[in-house]
């Protein structure tokens, strides 16, 4: 079945980047001139996704405003004539990327609980999940790579994965994998935030997955796990052990926008490639580097 729907969980408290996230959602932090969530919606749209549900929460309505029309701004840019046409196009184009709807997660009980809010929207078809604070930039959109692997392998879902530094594995999940071909693996077990000695490998799920609708029933019967949160990994584990997931060691660079260093790396790397300010920024970085 073709994957046409995606869920973007973006309701988290963002405590790792306080105080910035007190009043601004981390998903709205800009990378040069676009908010993180726009990169993610663009990735989904490029991968054939038509309908997107953003899981939001109190104090995060800026995301809805960003994908909505902006009549006063558009009128002002129109008055500016040819000189402002490009800006006008950018402002309108963002409203046409996909059909976007929103639902609020009333309490932040974890990623699994956030995904559960999408049960009605998804119905009975497989769907994509793109974590709202994980921006992945590359030639071949990441979720498209997962969708292809899901279709090709016929496994029950797919996860985006990368090898993480062994010292970091306790913060992530750990996957049990067997090679299939090239960068595609079969995932047969997983554990969230493994204690010392519990890890299967240093491959972790990062930022993207494709899930069957059955995940909702599983989530509803999954006990709260690490951090007293409903962990998506705990629900996926059951399906991975029974049927197997495709694991895709995806191409593209991931920026964790829920982490201070990730935010800075994203700005520097995207800034260096930016058509408008890239060359001036490069000179600036070289100058700064001399003093390091
Ligand atoms: P994170 O665990 O990175 O987000 O979840 P968090 O809970 O905001 O992080 P910290 O630890 O407090 O800094 C990954 C994605 O899942 C969403 C987040 O918004 C983020 O985009 N999420 C997380 C929810 O939608 N609901 C939740 O209850 C938890």
Please sum up the structure shown.
The protein has helices at residues 36-46, 62-66, 71-79, 85-93, 111-116, 119-122, 142-153, 215-220, 232-242, 260-273, 278-290, and strands at 5-9, 30-31, 34-35, 51-56, 99-104, 127-130, 134-137, 158-163, 173-181, 184-192, 203-211, 245-249, 253-256. By secondary structure, it is of the alpha/beta class. It has a nine-stranded mixed beta sheet. The protein has a two-stranded antiparallel ribbon with strand order 2-3. A two-stranded antiparallel ribbon has the order 7-13.
What does this structure look like?
By secondary structure, the protein is α/β, with parallel strands linked by helices. The chain has one domain (5-289): Spore Coat Polysaccharide Biosynthesis Protein SpsA, Chain A, CATH 3.90.550. It has 11 helices and 13 strands. It has helices spanning 36-46, 62-66, 71-79, 85-93, 111-116, 119-122, 142-153, 215-220, 232-242, 260-273, 278-290; strands spanning 5-9, 30-31, 34-35, 51-56, 99-104, 127-130, 134-137, 158-163, 173-181, 184-192, 203-211, 245-249, 253-256. The strands form 3 sheets. A 9-stranded mixed beta sheet has the order 5-4-1-6-11-8-12-10-9. It has a two-stranded antiparallel sheet with strand order 2-3. The protein has a two-stranded antiparallel sheet with strand order 7-13. The longest helix is centred in the last third of the chain and has 14 residues, at 260-273. The chain starts with a strand and ends with a helix. 41% of the residues are buried. The model has no long low-confidence stretch (mean pLDDT 96). Bound molecules: uridine 5'-triphosphate. Uridine 5'-triphosphate is lined by residues 9-16, 55, 105, 108-111, 113-114, 131-133, 258.
């Amino acid at each position: 079945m073709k994957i046409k729907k995606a869920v973007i969980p973006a309701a988290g408290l963002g405590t790792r980047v306080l105080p910035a996230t007190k009043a601004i959602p981390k998903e709205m932090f800009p990378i040069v001139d676009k908010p993180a969530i726009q990169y993610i919606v663009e990735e989904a749209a490029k991968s054939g996704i038509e309908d997107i549900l953003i899981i939001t929460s109190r104090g995060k309505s800026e995301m809805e405003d960003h994908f909505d029309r902006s009549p006063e701004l558009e009128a002002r840019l129109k008055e500016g004539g040819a000189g402002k046409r490009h800006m006008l196009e950018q402002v309108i184009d963002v409203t046409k990327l996909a059909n976007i709807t929103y639902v609020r997660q009333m309490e932040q009980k974890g990623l699994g609980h956030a995904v559960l809010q999408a049960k009605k929207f998804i119905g009975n078809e497989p769907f994509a999940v793109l974590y709202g604070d994980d921006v992945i930039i590359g030639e071949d959109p990441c979720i498209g790579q997962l969708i292809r692997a899901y279709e090709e392998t016929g496994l029950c879902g797919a996860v985006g994965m990368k090898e993480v530094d062994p010292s970091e594995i306790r913060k992530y999940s750990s996957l049990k994998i067997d090679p299939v071909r090239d960068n595609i693996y079969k995932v047969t077990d997983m554990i969230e935030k493994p204690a010392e000695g519990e890890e299967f490998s240093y491959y972790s799920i990062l930022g993207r997955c494709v899930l069957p609708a059955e995940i909702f029933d599983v989530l509803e019967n999954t006990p709260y796990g690490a951090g007293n949160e409903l962990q998506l990994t705990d629900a996926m584990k059951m399906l991975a052990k029974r049927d197997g997931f495709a694991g895709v060691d995806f191409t593209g660079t991931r920026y964790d926008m829920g982490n201070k260093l990730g935010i800075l790396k994203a700005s520097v790397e995207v800034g260096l490639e930016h058509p408008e300010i890239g060359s001036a920024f490069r000179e600036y970085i070289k100058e700064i580097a001399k003093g390091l």
